[in-house]
Amino acid sequence: MRLTIRQALLTISTVSLMLLQGCGEPEPIKIGFIGGTSGRVADLGVNGRNAAILATEQVNASGGINGHPIELLIRDDQQNPKLAAKHASELTRLPVTAIIGPMTSAMAMVVEPIATASGTLVMGTTVTTNNLTGRDDLFFRTLAATRHNASHHARYQLNQGIRSFSLIMDTRNRAYTQSWVDDFSDAFKAGGGTIIKVIPFVSSTHAPFPELARQLVDTQAQGIGLVSNSVDAALLIQHIRKNDSQVQILTSEWAGTERLIELGGQATEGIFVSQYLDRSSKASKYLNFRDAFLNRFGQEPGFPALVSYNATQILFEAIRRQRQGESLKQTLLRIRSFEGVQKPIRFDDYGDTTNRTYITQVINGRFRVVE
């Protein structure tokens, strides 16, 4: 059969289009990120988001994963459960391969069931509530639960000779703060200490910080523990110091960002802070990460950045090593052990890990590891 010129041109055009489509760019691997990147606790979310961006840019610069670029889809939950649920539902419908985050335990309690129901794996960042421990779900995390972290700090304070504590906790992130208070209290009392009072409050710009500080000091406890974000902790420390310059003060890991010292100033000198990060480390892997983060964002990477970077790197490695017919959960549990920036990370059968925190003290305006 002879082709007319018109038919021949159409045939050539069709074949060319098919060839172009066949040689098109590889489909990106879509990864969601959920975190609070605006509002009063944005230091946590912004730091974590930036680390995920850095890890994504690095893997894309090296050719992506098996030739596929990573597309990071960032969503701001504003520490609002309704927004977190909305973002989780949207991302799982796209769908994304996995979700990184969220940055607080309260938001994780909302995101996890939505993700698990859709079959989407969540690689948690700074989420340590006991409520997600030992569950056969699709939630993994690179940090130990509060029962390890808070009890470690309780034993340290006992060894320092402190025998009584009063605590204050932010109920807006109760999934985390209640776990931390309970675990600290249990370990402290088991070692012979006394918890005099626990004061709940709701984090906001209108919270009565002077009055809350006065209530804590009036208990005459040897130590005061703040289980809150860095902004609230800084305000409370300043007001506590106006009433008592000597009482021992500690914060949970949540407050341990650079913002704490920046806002609290001289009042933070001498306080104790549980940390996921040793900022004085000379290990090359940490220094390389720190330099890359500084060069990219112009600021020091705090603990949220370290944790988020670890979580993102582990997720990318799992995707890279995933076998045909294997779910991401199966891949992670098959590999189990991963190299973190400062510590190895090993998952148990439920996607939990047991790495310990550092105890730091603010000395000359810096977090110094004391244990």
Automatic annotation (TrEMBL):
It comes from the Bacteria. Pfam families: Peripla_BP_6 (PF13458). The keyword Transport applies. It comes from Motiliproteus coralliicola. GO terms for biological process: amino acid transport. The keyword Kinase does not apply. Belongs to the leucine-binding protein family. This is Amino acid ABC transporter substrate-binding protein.
